[in-house]
Design brief:
Blueprint: E1 6-11, H1 15-24, E2 30-35, H2 38-47, E3 52-56, H3 64-74, E4 79-84, H4 89-97, E5 103-106, H5 111-137, E6 148-149, E7 152-153, H6 157-169, E8 176-179, H7 186-195, E9 204-208, H8 214-222, H9 239-242, E10 247-251, H10 258-270, E11 272-273, E12 282-283, E13 287-292, H11 296-301, H12 307-313, E14 316-319, H13 329-344, E15 351-352, H14 354-362, H15 368-382, E16 387-388, H16 390-396, H17 401-409, H18 412-422, H19 427-430, E17 432-433, E18 436-437, H20 447-461, H21 466-473, H22 477-491
Parallel strand pairs: 1-2, 1-3, 3-4, 4-5, 8-13, 8-14, 9-10, 10-13, 15-16
Antiparallel strand pairs: 6-7, 11-12, 17-18
The structure holds adenosine-5'-triphosphate (ATP).
Length: about 500
């Protein structure tokens, strides 16, 4: 598990001491911050992830013990160390015993001892963080069992219908016409039809009619003989020959040249064709599957697709639903892609945070499964926590903060109710606004107020331990810190 570089904050009222500490710590594998006193340090802690805090005791305005006590509330996971003269020993021991600080360093310090101690603390903290993460996120050897059907992942009712249709259509010879938006899995469906058919020992030949230039298409389908056109240096088999006893998948059929569509129609009707440049008629046994992401009626009206060809190909229609109509299939598919890209990129992401999953379920997915696939691959490359969170997704999808909250907002109330039920806390008792319980049905509460009260309640139940409260609420600690920070910002 790769953890990011640690960060250390030194707090002292004397600039010379801070400069000296900074110089010594160049040897440390850590980002070093300095602050001239408690108030400046608290600002830094609010705006940055600080792992280790080393503070002087005797400082004007706010003494070191009071400062570190405050830190223990807002950043309980950070390791707090006192930099102290021997004369402060009683204060120091009391602070350690009360759990306000983790340990102390002597002032004046020995450079080597200082670096060694901080390195040990960095190591110690890493182990603690790893332990917490491992406990919190329960790393697993395998992801939860996923419903799969011949290349498809997902168990929504709509996809169950599709699987049923594929199972019924696969054994027949009749042509199948697959429609569905771009990236919705039309080729996966075509392959499933082939794999589940009696032709599975034969070849599955896919031709993307949009990707091949019109002048080459005829030769791609039917092959050519040597000398048929300039560049035809030898005989070449086309897809029709290669798919003999197998399946020919004509993807993006409405992009095929309309004149060639007439030749294709003849081939489908008779099973016979001639290679380009040859008069010899050949016969093959091919099952046709075609697909388009256009609406066939429109494509016919626009003269992109021959009507007679369409009716010939559209014996068994299959219409794939867009990803955003497949409910939580999206999360299952994302989990499978996560496993795949974890393996390819040698990463070990354990899954997604609850809000990241919510984003996956709420997003519209204009590019369907292919877009989801690309998103997960990017996240695996760009994220650096064991769980992938909603912010990584939002940044890859280019969503503003406002768009992200709008996207996540709609289910919030339900989620809060779910969580209260999960933790057996009666909602009316745990979430109170303006002195009224949420069981008061006459009042409508804003989502923001419900959220804030819920978080405040969780914090107070967990003795202000942000990590525990975050765990209880099912969000990451960083999300909670961000929210607390926002309230503090708007209050100041
Ligand atoms: N239900 C699914 N489960 C897992 N992976 C899927 C699923 N549907 C599609 N995919 C994957 O998504 C990607 C796009 O699927 P596919 O190429 O079949 O879509 P398409 O509809 O044929 O796209 P286009 O319209 O652009 O030709 C592929 O990598 C495919 O393996």
């Amino acid at each position: 598990m790769d953890l990011p570089k640690s960060s250390v904050l030194f707090v002292d009222d004397e600039s010379m001491i801070l400069d000296a500490l900074k110089r010594v710590c160049r040897k440390l594998y850590a980002t070093v911050f300095t602050a001239h006193g408690g108030h400046e340090a608290l600002e830094i802690i609010k705006n940055n992830q600080i792992d280790i805090i080393v503070s002087d005791i005797n400082m004007p305005n706010m003494d070191g013990i009071t400062f570190l006590e405050k830190v223990s509330k807002i950043s309980p996971e950070s390791i707090r160390i006192i930099l102290t003269a021997y004369t402060d020993v009683n204060n120091t021991l009391a602070a350690i015993n009360e759990g306000k600080v983790w340990g102390y360093l002597n002032k004046p310090w020995d450079n080597t001892h200082l670096i060694n101690t901080l390195n040990q603390v960095i190591e110690f903290r890493k182990i603690m963080v790893e332990r917490t993460l491992l406990k919190e996120f329960k790393p697993r050897d395998s992801f939860p069992s996923i419903d799969k059907f011949s290349g498809f992942v997902g168990s929504s009712a709509k996809m169950q219908n599709i699987y049923q249709t594929i199972k019924q259509c696969a054994p027949c010879k009749a042509s199948v016409f697959i429609t569905g938006p771009s990236g919705s899995g039309k080729e996966v469906a075509a392959q499933a039809l082939h794999e589940l058919s009696r032709r599975k020992e034969g070849s599955f030949i896919a031709l993307n009619c949009a990707a091949i230039p019109a002048e080459l298409m005829e030769s791609e389908i039917f092959g050519h003989v040597k000398g048929a056109f300039s560049g035809a240096h030898s005989n070449r088999d086309g897809a029709a020959t290669l798919a003999h006893n197998g399946t020919l998948f004509l993807d993006e059929i409405a992009e095929m040249d309309i004149i060639l569509q007439a030749k294709l129609l003849r081939f489908i009707q008779t099973g016979t064709f001639s290679r380009v440049g040859s008069g010899k008629v050949e016969k093959v046994d091919v099952r046709f599957i075609s697909a388009t992401n256009r609406e066939p009626d429109k494509a016919i009206a626009e003269n992109k697709l021959r009507e007679d060809l369409f009716y010939r190909l559209n014996v068994l229609p299959i219409a794939l639903p867009p990803l955003n109509e497949r409910g939580s299939d999206v999360v299952q598919i994302a989990e499978v892609f996560l496993q795949k890209y974890n393996q390819i990129e040698e990463r070990n992401y354990q899954g997604f945070t609850p809000l990241a999953k919510k984003l996956l379920r709420k997003y519209q997915w204009p590019g369907n499964v292919r877009q989801l696939q690309n998103l997960i691959y990017s996240a695996v490359v760009l994220a650096n926590e064991p769980l992938i969170d909603e912010h990584i997704f939002a940044s890859i999808l280019n969503l503003s903060d406002e768009q992200l909250s709008l996207l996540l907002e709609s289910e919030d109330v339900a989620q809060i109710h779910e969580k209260a039920t999960d933790s057996n806390i009666p909602i009316g008792e745990c979430v109170v606004t303006d002195g009224k319980s949420f069981q008061d049905n006459s009042k409508i509460y804003t989502l923001a107020s419900v959220e804030r009260k819920t978080i405040e309640h969780a914090l107070s139940q967990c003795n202000d331990n942000v990590v525990k409260a975050a765990e209880a609420l099912g969000v990451s600690p960083s999300t909670l810190y961000r929210k607390i920070q926002q309230w503090q910002d708007s209050a100041s």
